[in-house]
Amino acid sequence: MSPEQENLWLQIKNFELDDPNSSLSFSDRLSRENGWTIEYSLRCIEEYKKFMMLICSATHPLTPSDQVDQVWHLHLLYTESYWIDFCQNILNRQIHHGPTKGGQKENTKFTDWYLKTKNLYQATFKNIPPPDIWPSSDIRFKNTNFQRIDINNTWIITKPDFLKK
Known about the structure:
Low-confidence stretches: none
Number of helices: 7
Shape: globular
Number of strands: 0
Helix content: 55-70%
Strand content: under 5%
Structural class: mainly alpha
Radius of gyration: 17 Å
């Protein structure tokens, strides 16, 4: 990394998503809404920050892992934190979220961008992205049938493999 990039990375890395005055912190909410441990949520937040660093230095579009995307989605809900504190004051640029429009062409495009993201990650941070947060493209783009449910009112039973399509 150049000295400018190292300075930006330090600012991104030190950016605090958790509000000490909240009884439900960002990381607690991320953990609760995704069924993750707090430790895993904190690791995903760190990977989100690395992804945002990559966005600032890339010369091509990038695609996050699903876990990083969940952090990004939640951060977008904290509009002042995201748009003013983070994008405007830390990154000095607007970073918009561009979801898929659907279809095979989009799937191919995002799969390519995901591979480029992981390659840039390795070149920038000098290690491979953690596979439990940055899985292979086959795993990343396999499950696309998500629905939001209230787990207090719903039982979740995993389908046996022979019933999965």
